[in-house]
Design a protein that fits this description.
alpha/beta, Oxidized Rhodanese, domain 1, Metallo-beta-lactamase, Chain A, 2 domains, six-stranded mixed beta sheet, 20 strands, globular
């Protein structure tokens, strides 16, 4: 038996097909606990450090189930390949290592078709490694993007496969949890780049937008209406597509709302968010909410798409929507938790105020988001 490789997209497919595999993560325990692969469905995972395999080979091999298909994950690829060769030597018959390491899982985008009729298609691009979603709206020849990641080649290639030109790209806000791709996509394709007041004073080059502003395609397709929904950040935007879909950014999630404390101005931003939620609550209950993030896979439907009616979203978050301003601000403060130190650096990158090399970008961009205001997240932090 020879050792072979696999890609992040293969791992996600195995997860969704519920293949009988064991994931062996050979990073150290600290890195493993910080960020690891996750599946929509239960699966087996073992963490045995690469260094243990070097120093205690027999004992480490014994921790890996021999009757299973083994899929190895490491930081950059080399360690996984090394461990894979050891397992093959010990008689394991189905062993593969992740090409490119854990960063390729972190950058993976999974396209899902949300809508495909009426002269346009709407895609949700799920990023399992960040628990985030970006969006693409396509007509026959044109495409608009909302909140693309730094994996810009994916979007450019996707548009090309669909026979579309990317004409506009939007940021729902100045992202803090991942490095955004709108600026780079605009530079590479000639698309227009739009953002809210978060980008004022930055060097990102975003064109400013106004409340109720409508963007159109030149070959038909849906109206894309922009709503100013400050709170998560002062410049947060929501997008209404075809009076049917609400791409909500980090304002409203399926199971929470966006936390308003990431900018260090919790009182001011919490009031902004409270007022925004009062206005957003007046929108049509039949709108289909497409969030910028999800908390876990339980929020997805049977097709693994994150989408619920606004009525259902409000019902899931009814306590928050029912609060008065004083109670709401107290709720936010009670559930505040420290934001990752990297968020300040990511904001600088997204404002084009600092430029980082690829290794640094990978380091900053790795790990789950911390954008929701939830009691669960605060409790988890206190327990750790």
């Amino acid at each position: 038996m020879t050792l072979s490789s696999y890609e992040a997209k293969d791992l996600f497919q195995w997860f969704t097909d519920k293949e009988d595999i064991t994931v062996l993560d050979v990073r150290n325990e600290k890195d493993f606990q910080r960020f690891q692969v996750e599946s929509p469905y239960p699966f087996d995972m073992v963490n045995v450090s690469y260094y243990d395999f070097m120093e205690l080979e027999e004992e480490s091999v014994a921790k890996v189930p021999k009757d299973r298909a083994i899929r190895i994950v490491c930081a950059k690829e080399g360690s996984a390949k090394y461990v894979g060769e050891i397992l093959v030597k010990h008689g394991f018959t189905d062993v593969r290592y992740l090409t490119g390491g854990i960063k390729t899982w972190g950058n993976l985008l999974v396209p899902k078709v949300v809508h495909q009729k009426d002269g346009y298609s709407l895609y949700q691009f799920i990023r399992p490694g960040k628990a985030s979603c970006s969006y693409g709206i396509c007509t026959e020849t044109e495409m608009m993007l909302v909140d693309p990641t730094r994996n810009i080649d994916f979007y450019i290639d996707f548009a090309k496969e669909k026979g579309c030109k990317i004409i506009k790209t939007f940021e729902s806000h100045l992202q803090a949890d991942y490095i955004a791709g709108s600026r780079q996509i605009a530079e590479k394709t000639g698309a227009e780049f739009f953002g809210g007041i978060d980008f004022d004073g930055t060097k990102a080059g975003a064109k400013s937008v106004k409340d109720q502003e409508i963007h159109n395609f030149s070959d038909g397709g849906p109206d894309v209406k922009i709503l100013l929904t400050p709170g998560h950040t002062p410049g947060s935007l929501t997008f209404i597509v075809d009076d049917t879909y609400m791409i909500s950014g980090d304002t409203v999630f399926i199971q929470s709302i966006g936390r308003p404390d990431l900018g260090g101005q919790v009182d001011q931003w919490a009031i902004l968010l409270y007022n925004t939620l009062q206005e957003v609550a007046k929108l049509d209950d039949s709108l289909l909410v497409l969030p910028g993030h999800y908390m876990d896979w339980s929020e997805a439907d049977e097709d693994l798409i994150f989408c619920l009616t606004f009525r259902q979203v409000k019902d899931r978050n009814k306590d928050v929507f029912a609060m008065d301003e004083k109670t709401f601000i107290k709720y936010i403060k009670d559930n505040m938790r420290s934001q990752p130190a990297d968020y300040a650096l990511i904001r600088l990158a997204n404002g084009n105020m600092e430029q980082y090399d690829m290794d640094k970008q990978e380091e900053l961009d790795l790990g789950k988001n911390e954008c929701a205001a939830t009691a669960y997240a605060k409790a988890q932090e206190m327990a750790s």
